[in-house]
Design goal:
This protein has 3 helices and no strands. It is mostly helical. It has one domain.
């Protein structure tokens, strides 16, 4: 995936979050995460991504 594609997808994610609204955003993100986990289909990779996300969230 190119940087441009990544940027575009991030924009689509942001627009989708705006569309569902703040109240539904956590459920949307949870559902998206479950779908992504299923597509990744690699327990080790998913665990590494979860850890990376957790660490990055602590730095906010």
């Amino acid at each position: 995936m190119t940087e441009s594609e990544l940027d575009s997808l991030y924009g689509e994610l942001c627009r989708a979050l705006s569309e569902v609204g703040a109240a539904a955003a956590p459920l949307f993100l949870a559902r998206f995460a479950l779908l992504a986990i299923g597509e990744i289909d690699d327990v080790g990779r998913v665990r590494a991504l979860l850890l990376s996300a957790e660490i990055a969230s602590r730095c906010l």
